[in-house]
Design brief:
- The protein is of the alpha/beta class.
- It has a single domain, classed as Rossmann fold (3-Layer(aba) Sandwich), CATH 3.40.50.
- It is built from 7 helices and 5 strands; from the N terminus they run βαβαβαβααβαα.
- It has a 5-stranded parallel sheet, sandwiched between helices.
- Helix 2 links the parallel strand 2 and strand 3.
- The chain is globular, with a radius of gyration of 17 Å.
């Protein structure tokens, strides 16, 4: 396969953060290959948004992979019997919207595609400031996964250039993420962050993810263009 270190695999959920990470990767000069997942999530509207974001941002290729994390459940996002909380969660607790091993699995797929593409760059829009307490969004997790990846692939053990997992949002507040995205021309109206949207896709405005998003737009001094129920 042809080696091209300017290719990057970007995990694209269809939400605000991943759309911004994609724009930042493109701004750095990478040819972006967007990767999304239908994993049995109740907010599957995000996949429609991911497709729209990929098209408007002109990615080289966009793939949507189906995996069945709903088979295990354990999260309000993959088990319809568990309600999505509509009250503010405690920052000391891991919320019920955490999907076990989700980012580990997503990064593994991204790693496989990057290796086939001859790429040593993966972008993921995790954030360690304005986030919901997910253990697989922490810098320690990303660093450990990157170390593992460079031990587990052909490229990692034979090439001089090692795989890098880029986390351009890791130290930004939600308002700073939005500001950066607006500077790069991200259409946030095409993104969905809601965990419990209406059947037509309107955001609830009260789940943890909506709260963080709305707070970020408010602190940024601009209106969220996403359609909300109220």
């Amino acid at each position: 396969m042809e080696k091209n270190t300017k290719k990057a695999v970007v995990l694209l959920s269809g939400g605000l953060d991943s759309a911004t990470a994609l724009a930042m990767a493109a701004a750095e000069g990478f040819d972006c290959y967007a990767l999304s997942f239908g994993y049995g999530q109740r907010h599957a509207i995000e996949l429609t948004c991911a497709d729209q974001v990929a098209q408007t941002q002109g990615v080289a290729e966009h793939r949507i992979i189906d995996i069945d994390l709903a088979a295990f459940g354990g999260s309000a996002l993959t088990d319809l019997a568990i309600e999505v909380p509509h009250t503010e969660s405690s920052p000391e607790e891991i919320p019920i919207t955490y999907v076990p091993a989700r980012n580990t699995i997503f990064l593994s797929y991204a790693l496989a595609w990057a290796e086939v593409l001859g790429s040593t760059n993966i972008f993921i829009g995790v954030n360690a400031l304005d986030y919901s307490g997910y253990p697989d969004c922490r810098p320690e997790f990303i660093a450990a996964y990157e170390t593992m990846a460079n031990l587990a692939t052909k490229a990692g053990v034979t090439d001089e250039e090692k795989l890098t997992i880029h986390t351009p949002l890791i130290d930004l507040t939600k308002a700073q993420i939005i500001q950066k995205g607006l500077e790069l021309g991200v259409d946030y109206g095409a993104t969905s962050s809601c965990y419990d949207p209406a059947p037509g896709g309107a955001a609830c405005g009260t789940c943890d993810s909506c709260r963080l998003r709305l707070k970020g737009f408010k602190e940024n001094g601009t209106k969220d263009p996403r359609n909300y129920m109220n």
